[in-house]
Design a protein that fits this description.
The structure is a homodimer. By secondary structure, chain A is an all-alpha fold. Chain A contains six helices and two strands; from the N terminus they run H-H-E-E-H-H-H-H. Chain A has two domains: about 70 residues, Multidrug-efflux Transporter Regulator, Chain: A, Domain 2, CATH 1.10.1660; about 60 residues. Chain A has a two-stranded antiparallel ribbon. The longest helix of chain A is centred in the C-terminal third of the chain and has 34 residues. The interface between A and B is large, with 55 and 55 residues. Chain A binds a DNA duplex through helix 2.
Amino acid sequence: MTLATTALVTIAQASATTGVSAKMIRHYESVGLIKPPVRTENRYRHYAESDLHDLGFIRRARDLGFSFEDIRQLLDLWRNKGRSSAEVKAIALRHIKELDEKASALAAMSRTLQTLAASCHGDKRPDCPILEALDRPVLTSPSAPLRGNP
Amino acid sequence: MTLATTALVTIAQASATTGVSAKMIRHYESVGLIKPPVRTENRYRHYAESDLHDLGFIRRARDLGFSFEDIRQLLDLWRNKGRSSAEVKAIALRHIKELDEKASALAAMSRTLQTLAASCHGDKRPDCPILEALDRPVLTSPSAPLRGNP
DNA sequence: ACATGGGTTCCCATCATGGGAAGGTCAAGG
DNA sequence: CCTTGACCTTCCCATGATGGGAACCCATGT
């Protein structure tokens, strides 16, 4: 009830307080992720506290790797007091799965390369198992147990 | 010495045998990653075995997450018989570091979200720690030891 | 002769982000 | 009053790797 005249701030100030670049703030507006803010006569954007909240929300969601589409849905859910937490959780769980899959893929690449790099002497000699692996197929064999002389 | 008339193949055949899409093959050519192949009078591209090798090399390098720039250097090193394996290994080690950093970042996001999701009941009730975390700052506190009633 | 299945070039889209140009606006200070 | 500098505005372009699709040319089989 305390209509506290919600101090309007410029886009640069909004950027500074939320950690979202001015460029991105305008972009979020253009793709409909946030509501167009009020404009002064000069056509300058001015953001109210609720706008700053949304921008902070978006930045934190992005820091967790959510896509624009996910964020759009999360923001809608946040605003919808009649939401069910199950909806939110479903989005989060799906995203966790995607994150884990990507991380696993990167880790697999890293492991393969580590194995190859470990057996590369890394000196002036030209022969190198890394290049050999790229040379011909049969790569991606992860823990190829070094049978030969155990 | 056996100049084996290196059976020239069309772009579709090259794509099929190397696993690189025709689209990408043309793209690699346009950015100078591979040499322009010979053309028949019809302007059709025709690939020799050495070209197929390069495409296979590129695909395997891409499967390991190397960037175009890295691949360019790796291909140059592969062709350069006077290379030192140290150069190859340096590229690989740098890339491993990048892969690990990205994987760690994703894993951190996943962990944070897993923690939040674990404490979200995920039913019809609207209150949800995930949304609460996005609501206000002080997220990214990983193992916030649940002091309160131990 | 015409259909089909390649090939070719060129443009556009993705996803999130930034760079930069060209121009309008405002406050402070000489 | 006018300049300077720091904002603001819009619009276009670029990234990296990949794909979609249009519009058009070519080759082969029935």
